[in-house]
């Protein structure tokens, strides 16, 4: 029970047992007396009731802080919850294990709770857009080959410090009593996320990222069984699947779990060849052209000099009604500023969105409503639009960097060569059945980065819209959206079909009919008409013409970079990545 003299200090409360480890045992914890300066906690220990004094500290509004020393640690009550923490002022927010000891009616918080997955832009976790069932194949057609380029799955921040720095600032604010009730709850959620994900190394996949990679690999087989599974009369042992990744953990992990998903769908592991590109190889230069072309790196380093983008960033994030100010008013008490911090509020709110909110969504999308709940729908739209503008400036089909679309020319060249070789080997086997037992590549799967795929989409006009046309309009109307084009795990697929009709002419020197070949593309597993084609199932010749216009070999790539290719072997000094797992 609680004496009436406490009524002016705290709302009616009910107490629950704290764990025995905290030396607070027994079915009841009762306040026996209250005053403005001190009160007493009555606890039952080994059959004996004992009392300990603790102070009631008045905070803003109805917030009450109680602190009781237990075994050298402080049992602290802040905004309705007991926490066993260090009594050391510098470590006050270090949390110790304690039972659920205190409850009261949940205070009404001011979280907007308007944030949606699409507000994460290109940091959005991969989502199956329910693109199936597919448009029926043309009569007498079957899929025989697949070309694929995909981004790695959901991951941790590039540097853990990017994720933890905002948390440390909030802990600093908590130590000085500068957090609002909403700020206290945000800090609690962030600390829980940090503690529960300590096992995830920076830059590497989260468990959710592994799951997504496994599921996409499984769906590849499910969607195109005629490509990946043996056909009647053919064991499939000679039908090979090549998988290639950049030398980073996250792409290797993604490749590995594609493989696992495909194996569980019946693909023989012996048919799969996995490869990690060497830093000195042409493939590495093609997949990471954004790293190996000095002209591109110089451009990326100068993005902040582009006035229209920076003007929008400052105008949209700053100001009394902007996301930065709204965030600070929600989480921090007036006047709070971390000691020595010179970073603008807009940098703080961008970091929380990009590293804290994003990480929670990439760990568990269903929990995104916690650390992202601080943003309004308008905030989310502004932040995702800024991310899209930056991506377009650096990697899109933009007049400010006309060579950006050429950064994907090496990858497009691999698509082109893969399709041409598939047609040649398939036709040769039809002409001469004895060649059916010779090795034939039925799929080339590549795993890289957003910066690898974005230039390919721009070069092929799949994502050619200029999002800057919406600077003074409704940005929600734009088609260039990272959450639809370049989210975590995004992928582009070219599926080759062989169509043998009754009217087809016989192959030279054979009674077999000559097939006609068609190609369809899928972006993030959703069918798209390739720009330049008139229909979804496009004639192979037209597709090859489109690819040839945008492809390049190593010599042309070097000319494109004005002879300024960075020595990719030197990059290994900055990215000492190790191989991951069983490559099978």
Commentary on this structure:
The protein has 584 residues and is an alpha+beta fold. The protein has 18 helices and 17 strands. The strands form three sheets. Strands 10, 11, 12, 13, 14, 15, 16 and 17 form an eight-stranded mixed beta sheet that branches. A seven-stranded antiparallel beta sheet has the order 2-3-4-5-6-7-8, with no helix packed on it.
Give the helix level as a range of percent. 25-40%
The end-to-end distance, rounded to whole angstroms, is 66 Å
**SS content category:** alpha+beta
Average pLDDT number: 76
Major sheet size, sense and barrel closure: 8 strands, mixed
Strand content: 15-25%
Shape field:
elongated
Total E-strand runs: 17
Low-pLDDT residue intervals, each spanning 5 or more residues: 1-73, 78-82, 88-106, 573-584
> What is the radius of gyration?
30 Å
Helix-strand layout with pairing:
Elements: E1 14-15, E2 25-33, E3 38-45, E4 48-58, E5 64-70, E6 73-78, E7 81-85, E8 95-96, E9 102-103, E10 141-151, H1 160-175, H2 181-196, H3 207-223, H4 225-228, E11 239-245, H5 249-263, E12 272-276, H6 282-287, H7 289-292, H8 294-301, H9 307-317, H10 323-331, H11 345-363, H12 377-395, H13 409-431, E13 440-448, H14 450-459, H15 482-485, E14 491-499, E15 516-523, E16 526-528, E17 538-539, H16 540-549, H17 554-560, H18 568-571
Parallel strand pairs: 10-13, 11-12, 11-13
Antiparallel strand pairs: 1-9, 2-3, 3-4, 4-5, 5-6, 6-7, 7-8, 10-14, 14-15, 15-16, 15-17
Helix pairs in contact: 1-2, 1-11, 3-5, 9-12, 10-11
């Amino acid at each position: 029970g609680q004496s009436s003299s406490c009524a002016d200090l705290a709302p009616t409360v009910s107490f629950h047992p704290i764990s025995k480890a905290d030396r607070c045992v027994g079915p009841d914890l009762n306040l026996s007396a209250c005053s403005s300066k001190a009160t007493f906690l009555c606890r039952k220990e080994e059959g004996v009731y004992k009392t300990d004094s603790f102070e009631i500290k008045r905070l803003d509004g109805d917030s009450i802080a109680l602190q009781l020393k237990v075994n050298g640690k402080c049992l602290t009550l802040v905004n309705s919850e007991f926490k066993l923490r260090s009594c050391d002022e510098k470590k006050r927010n270090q949390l110790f294990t304690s039972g659920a000891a205190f409850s009261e009616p949940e205070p009404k918080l001011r979280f907007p709770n308007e944030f949606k997955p699409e507000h994460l832009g290109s940091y959005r976790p991969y989502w199956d857009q329910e693109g199936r069932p597919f448009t029926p194949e043309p009569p007498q057609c079957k899929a025989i080959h697949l070309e694929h380029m995909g981004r790695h799955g959901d991951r941790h921040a590039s540097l853990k410090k990017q994720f933890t720095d905002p948390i440390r600032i909030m802990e600093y604010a908590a130590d000085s009593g500068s957090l609002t009730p909403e700020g206290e709850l945000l800090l609690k959620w962030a600390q829980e996320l940090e503690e529960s994900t300590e096992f995830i190394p920076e830059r590497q996949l989260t468990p959710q990222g592994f799951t997504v990679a496994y599921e996409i690999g499984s769906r590849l087989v499910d969607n195109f069984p005629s490509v990946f599974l043996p056909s009647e009369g053919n064991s499939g042992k000679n039908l090979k699947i090549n998988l290639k990744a950049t030398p980073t953990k996250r792409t290797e992990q993604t490749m590995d779990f594609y493989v696992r998903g495909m194996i569980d769908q019946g693909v023989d592991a012996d048919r799969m060849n996995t490869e990690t590109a060497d830093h000195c190889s042409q493939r590495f230069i093609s997949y990471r052209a954004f790293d190996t072309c000095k002209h591109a790196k110089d451009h990326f380093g100068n993005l902040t000099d582009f006035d229209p983008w920076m003007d929008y960033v400052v105008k949209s994030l700053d100001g009394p009604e902007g996301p930065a100010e709204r965030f600070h008013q929600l989480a921090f008490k007036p006047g709070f500023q971390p000691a020595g911090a010179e970073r603008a509020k807009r940098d703080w709110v961008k970091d929380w969105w990009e590293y804290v909110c994003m990480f929670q969504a990439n760990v568990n999308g269903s929990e995104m409503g916690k650390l992202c709940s601080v943003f309004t729908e308008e905030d989310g739209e502004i932040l995702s639009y800024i991310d899209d503008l930056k991506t377009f400036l650096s990697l899109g089909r933009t007049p400010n960097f006309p060579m950006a679309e050429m950064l994907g020319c090496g990858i497009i060249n691999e698509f082109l060569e893969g399709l041409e070789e598939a047609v040649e080997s398939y036709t040769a086997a039809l002409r001469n059945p004895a060649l059916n037992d010779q090795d034939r590549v039925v799929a080339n799967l590549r795993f890289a980065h957003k910066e690898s795929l974005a230039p390919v989409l721009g070069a092929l006009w799949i994502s050619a819209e200029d999002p800057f046309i919406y600077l003074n309009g409704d940005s929600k109307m734009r088609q260039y959206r990272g959450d639809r084009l370049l989210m975590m795990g995004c992928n582009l697929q070219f599926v080759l079909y062989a169509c043998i009709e009754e009217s087809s002419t016989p192959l030279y020197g054979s009674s077999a009919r000559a097939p006609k070949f068609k190609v369809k593309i899928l972006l993030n597993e959703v069918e798209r008409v390739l720009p330049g084609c008139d229909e979804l199932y496009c004639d192979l010749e037209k597709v090859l013409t489109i690819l040839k216009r945008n492809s390049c070999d190593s010599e042309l790539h070097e000319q494109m970079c004005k002879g300024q290719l960075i020595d990719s072997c030197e990059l290994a000094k900055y990215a000492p990545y190790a191989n991951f797992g069983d490559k099978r």
